[in-house]
Amino acid sequence: MLNSLSGRFLILTTVFVMLAEMLIFFPSVARFREDFLLSRLERAQIASLALLADDMIDADLEEELLLNAEVFNVVLRRDAVRQLVLSSPMPRPIDGTFDLRDPPAMLLIKDAVTRLLKSEPEVIRIIGAPVREAGLLIEVTMPTEGLRAAMLDYGLRILALSAVISIFTASLLFLAVRFLLVRPIRGVVDHMQRYAAAPEDARQIIEPSSGVTELREAEDALQSMQVELTQALKQKERLAQLGGAVARVSHDLRNILTSAQLFTDRIEMSEDPVVQRMAPKLVNSITRAVNLCETTLAFGKAEEPAPRLTRFALSEIVNDVIASERLAVGEHDLSFAEDVPIGLSVRADPEQLYRVISNLVRNARQAIIATGKAGEISVCAQENDDDWVICVHDTGPGLPKKALEHLFTPFQGGARKGGTGLGLAIAAELIRGHGGVLELMRSTEAGTTFEIRLPKGDVAV
């Protein structure tokens, strides 16, 4: 209870209200003391009127007047003459004098607190102005026992009233906070707990309904987060299912390609010049397909394997890619261009770099063929002090808007109908594995250009 928001709010409210009441308590007690002393001066003035009316009164009547006024003696100053009007024996000397003629507020509070703290009985002199201007001033001497007892009684009643007000106010605020804040917050927490138990269930997504601005903003943010998380979990589940399916397909495909490799060994022994020229390309393609199946199986178990860095001539990889793509062109009017220096060697994983360049060239070929128009694809490379730079440029129609928005996002960056959107995502991941970057430099109606940057420094991989 005390650790809850409403419980702590109840305690704080009670404490603050009591502090406010204490700020009222001391001025109230000081005012009560002043009124008490003024009432004693007024009683003493009334008692002195009896003597003014009759100069001779007996001792018993004088004692009774002083007892009713609760003072020891009365001094009245009239016409600049100070006159002892009533008197009786005092038990002890006067301990202090207090002037009530327009005293400062802080002095009254100080004298009141001092009187509350002093428990020893004293005799004090009080000076004040007579009622209805019946003289210049009036002085009385009186004991402090009655004054302190009355102040304590009044103070206790003030404290009790303050406690009642504090508890009542705190209770009202406690109920208000509980119904207006704590219950809506508890509702949001319950939504979060139910959603955490079944995040894939869209029915557990919160529907914002709070009328409090801050809580409504929190509910809106929670709803947005839950929607995105649910979609991400569904996509992750689909990816897991797809990964399992791809692993099974890759396993069977690897076996089939292994058998095809055996047949290509015999094809290489053919004396036909065309077969002898094409057989190495076929062997390389089947070998790459087998390697791809093996790496796909490894990816299904963990992640894309780390690149095995070696130095090799980039022109050989680019030549293999373009040779394979030329076979897929058919009768379309599509040309290829290479601008890779013969002596340019790069440090990378040849199989992974082949996959990246092949993916970019293949995407460009499919885009140009889909338009039915003539086109050109060019691959160029250069190096500087820091990087090897490979550019793949085409004169195709450019990437669609949807593909540009989710270019390297799996299943969302597909540029053609029927595409999975995995190609560019995998290519970017492979280049990142080398410590490099794959970027789209431009994509307009005049064509598209991708750039691969591979670092030369030790930061690679």
UniProtKB/TrEMBL annotation:
Gene symbol? zraS
Q: Which residues form a coiled coil?
A: 215-242
What's the protein here called? histidine kinase
Q: What organism does the record attribute this protein to?
A: Planktotalea frisia
What's the domain of life for this entry? Bacteria
Check the record and name the Gene3D superfamilies matching this protein.
1.10.287.130, Histidine kinase-like ATPase, C-terminal domain (3.30.565.10)
What are the EC numbers?
A: 2.7.13.3
Q: Which residues cross the membrane?
A: 6-30, 158-181
User: EC class of this enzyme?
Assistant: transferase
Database matches in PROSITE patterns: HIS_KIN
What is a GO molecular function of this protein? phosphorelay sensor kinase activity
- Domain Histidine kinase residue range list: 248-458
